[in-house]
Protein backbone atom coordinates (compact mmCIF):
# COMPACT_ATOMS: atom_id res chain seq x y z
CA UNK A 1 0.00 0.00 0.00
CA UNK A 2 1.49 3.31 -1.09
CA UNK A 3 1.34 5.92 1.64
CA UNK A 4 3.36 8.82 0.30
CA UNK A 5 5.02 10.02 -2.89
CA UNK A 6 7.62 12.76 -3.31
CA UNK A 7 9.55 13.97 -6.33
CA UNK A 8 12.00 11.07 -6.12
CA UNK A 9 10.52 8.59 -3.64
CA UNK A 10 7.57 6.47 -2.65
CA UNK A 11 6.94 5.32 0.90
CA UNK A 12 4.96 2.10 1.44
CA UNK A 13 3.85 0.11 4.43
CA UNK A 14 6.36 -2.63 5.06
CA UNK A 15 5.17 -6.16 4.31
CA UNK A 16 6.56 -9.63 5.06
CA UNK A 17 8.07 -9.86 1.56
CA UNK A 18 10.32 -6.89 2.46
CA UNK A 19 12.22 -9.16 4.87
CA UNK A 20 15.31 -9.60 2.62
CA UNK A 21 15.78 -5.83 2.38
CA UNK A 22 15.20 -5.39 6.13
CA UNK A 23 17.77 -8.11 6.83
CA UNK A 24 20.35 -6.19 4.78
CA UNK A 25 19.47 -2.81 6.34
CA UNK A 26 19.54 -4.05 9.94
CA UNK A 27 22.99 -5.51 9.35
CA UNK A 28 24.59 -2.41 7.84
CA UNK A 29 27.62 -1.46 10.00
CA UNK A 30 26.25 2.09 10.44
CA UNK A 31 22.89 0.70 11.62
CA UNK A 32 24.68 -1.28 14.32
CA UNK A 33 26.80 1.73 15.28
CA UNK A 34 24.13 4.42 15.42
CA UNK A 35 20.86 2.58 16.02
CA UNK A 36 21.85 -0.74 17.51
CA UNK A 37 22.26 -4.40 16.77
CA UNK A 38 18.77 -5.91 16.61
CA UNK A 39 20.23 -9.43 16.57
CA UNK A 40 18.59 -10.19 13.23
CA UNK A 41 20.83 -12.51 11.19
CA UNK A 42 18.40 -14.50 9.05
CA UNK A 43 15.20 -14.01 7.07
CA UNK A 44 13.06 -15.47 9.88
CA UNK A 45 14.36 -12.83 12.28
CA UNK A 46 13.66 -10.10 9.74
CA UNK A 47 10.08 -11.37 9.41
CA UNK A 48 9.66 -11.28 13.19
CA UNK A 49 11.11 -7.74 13.28
CA UNK A 50 8.56 -6.64 10.66
CA UNK A 51 5.59 -8.38 12.29
CA UNK A 52 6.37 -7.23 15.84
CA UNK A 53 7.55 -3.74 14.82
CA UNK A 54 6.23 -1.81 11.82
CA UNK A 55 3.30 -4.08 10.93
CA UNK A 56 2.05 -4.18 14.55
CA UNK A 57 2.50 -0.40 14.75
CA UNK A 58 0.22 0.18 11.73
CA UNK A 59 -2.48 -1.85 13.46
CA UNK A 60 -1.98 -0.34 16.94
CA UNK A 61 -1.32 3.33 16.12
CA UNK A 62 -2.22 3.89 12.47
CA UNK A 63 1.38 4.68 11.55
CA UNK A 64 4.83 3.13 11.61
CA UNK A 65 8.05 2.88 9.67
CA UNK A 66 7.63 2.80 5.90
CA UNK A 67 9.72 1.30 3.13
CA UNK A 68 11.37 4.04 1.09
CA UNK A 69 11.80 3.28 -2.63
CA UNK A 70 13.56 5.40 -5.20
CA UNK A 71 11.18 6.17 -8.07
CA UNK A 72 13.84 6.15 -10.81
CA UNK A 73 15.22 2.69 -10.03
CA UNK A 74 12.33 1.21 -7.99
CA UNK A 75 15.04 0.16 -5.51
CA UNK A 76 14.36 -0.14 -1.80
CA UNK A 77 16.77 2.35 -0.22
CA UNK A 78 15.71 2.74 3.40
CA UNK A 79 12.96 3.12 5.97
CA UNK A 80 11.38 6.26 7.37
CA UNK A 81 8.31 6.88 9.48
CA UNK A 82 6.90 7.35 12.93
CA UNK A 83 7.43 5.11 15.92
CA UNK A 84 5.55 5.09 19.21
CA UNK A 85 8.04 4.13 21.88
CA UNK A 86 6.98 3.39 25.44
CA UNK A 87 9.93 5.48 26.66
CA UNK A 88 8.71 8.66 24.89
CA UNK A 89 5.41 10.46 25.40
CA UNK A 90 5.05 11.46 21.75
CA UNK A 91 5.69 9.67 18.44
CA UNK A 92 9.18 9.98 17.04
CA UNK A 93 10.51 10.22 13.53
CA UNK A 94 12.87 7.42 12.64
CA UNK A 95 14.85 6.71 9.51
CA UNK A 96 17.68 4.52 8.25
CA UNK A 97 19.08 4.19 4.76
CA UNK A 98 21.49 1.89 2.97
CA UNK A 99 24.84 3.68 3.09
CA UNK A 100 25.22 4.07 -0.68
CA UNK A 101 22.15 6.35 -0.61
CA UNK A 102 23.50 8.70 2.08
CA UNK A 103 24.26 12.32 1.24
CA UNK A 104 21.72 12.58 -1.58
CA UNK A 105 18.88 14.23 0.35
CA UNK A 106 16.71 11.12 0.49
CA UNK A 107 16.38 11.10 4.30
CA UNK A 108 15.37 14.76 4.34
CA UNK A 109 12.87 14.25 1.51
CA UNK A 110 11.33 11.17 3.11
CA UNK A 111 11.33 12.81 6.56
CA UNK A 112 9.51 15.88 5.26
CA UNK A 113 6.90 13.69 3.58
CA UNK A 114 6.33 11.83 6.87
CA UNK A 115 6.04 15.07 8.84
CA UNK A 116 3.54 16.47 6.32
CA UNK A 117 1.55 13.23 6.55
CA UNK A 118 1.69 13.32 10.36
CA UNK A 119 0.29 16.84 10.42
CA UNK A 120 -2.30 16.69 7.63
CA UNK A 121 -3.57 13.12 7.83
CA UNK A 122 -2.77 11.88 11.33
CA UNK A 123 -3.34 15.25 13.06
CA UNK A 124 -0.12 14.86 15.05
CA UNK A 125 1.48 18.19 15.85
CA UNK A 126 4.34 17.41 18.23
CA UNK A 127 6.98 14.92 17.07
CA UNK A 128 10.22 13.78 18.69
CA UNK A 129 13.36 12.28 17.20
CA UNK A 130 16.29 10.60 18.90
CA UNK A 131 19.74 9.95 17.55
CA UNK A 132 23.12 8.74 18.65
CA UNK A 133 25.17 11.77 19.74
CA UNK A 134 27.88 10.99 17.14
CA UNK A 135 25.48 10.55 14.21
CA UNK A 136 26.24 13.83 12.47
CA UNK A 137 24.33 12.87 9.31
CA UNK A 138 21.07 12.27 11.18
CA UNK A 139 21.54 15.40 13.25
CA UNK A 140 21.96 17.39 10.03
CA UNK A 141 18.78 15.87 8.58
CA UNK A 142 16.77 16.63 11.73
CA UNK A 143 18.01 20.22 11.76
CA UNK A 144 17.07 20.68 8.07
CA UNK A 145 13.59 19.37 8.89
CA UNK A 146 13.19 21.98 11.63
CA UNK A 147 13.74 19.83 14.71
CA UNK A 148 15.32 21.51 17.72
CA UNK A 149 17.73 19.80 20.10
CA UNK A 150 16.17 19.55 23.57
CA UNK A 151 18.48 17.45 25.75
CA UNK A 152 20.53 14.29 26.17
CA UNK A 153 18.33 11.40 27.33
CA UNK A 154 19.17 8.00 28.71
CA UNK A 155 16.36 5.78 27.43
CA UNK A 156 15.67 2.19 28.42
CA UNK A 157 16.61 -0.24 25.68
CA UNK A 158 19.50 1.83 24.28
CA UNK A 159 23.18 1.11 24.87
CA UNK A 160 24.08 4.77 25.33
CA UNK A 161 22.43 8.16 25.87
CA UNK A 162 20.79 9.80 22.84
CA UNK A 163 20.13 13.32 21.69
CA UNK A 164 16.42 14.17 21.88
CA UNK A 165 14.99 16.55 19.28
CA UNK A 166 11.45 17.85 18.95
CA UNK A 167 9.38 19.77 16.42
CA UNK A 168 6.00 21.49 16.63
CA UNK A 169 4.03 21.18 13.40
CA UNK A 170 1.38 23.81 14.24
Structural write-up:
There is one protein chain. The chain has 170 residues and is an alpha+beta fold. It has six helices and eight strands; from the N terminus they run E-E-H-H-H-H-E-E-E-H-E-H-E-E. It has helices spanning 19-26, 29-34, 43-52, 54-61, 106-120, 136-145; strands at residues 2-5, 9-13, 65-70, 76-83, 92-97, 126-131, 148-153, 162-168. The strands form two sheets. A five-stranded antiparallel sheet has the order 1-2-3-4-5. A three-stranded antiparallel sheet has the order 6-8-7, covered by helices on one side. A hairpin with a 3-residue loop joins strand 1 and strand 2.
Class computed from helices, strands and strand pairing? alpha+beta
| Parts with pLDDT < 50 across at least 5 consecutive residues | none
The shape is globular
Proper CATH architecture: 3-Layer(aba) Sandwich
Task: State which percent range the strand residues make up.
Answer: 25-35%
What percent of residues adopt helix (DSSP H or I)?
A: 25-40%
Spatial strand arrangement across the major sheet:
1-2-3-4-5
Largest sheet: 5 strands, antiparallel
Q: Which class in CATH terms?
A: Alpha Beta
Gyration radius from CA atoms, angstroms: 15 Å
Domain unit count? 1
In sequence order, what are the helices and strands, one letter per element?
EEHHHHEEEHEHEE
Give the overall pLDDT as a whole number.
Answer: 95
Count of discrete alpha- or pi-helical segments spanning 4 or more residues: 6
Cα(first) to Cα(last) distance is 28 Å
Using DSSP, what is the number of strands?
A: 8
Amino acid sequence: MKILKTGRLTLHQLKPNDAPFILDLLNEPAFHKYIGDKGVRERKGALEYLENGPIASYENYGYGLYLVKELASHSSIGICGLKKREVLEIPDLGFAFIKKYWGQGFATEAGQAVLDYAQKELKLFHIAAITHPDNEGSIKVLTKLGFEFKKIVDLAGFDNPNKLFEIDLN
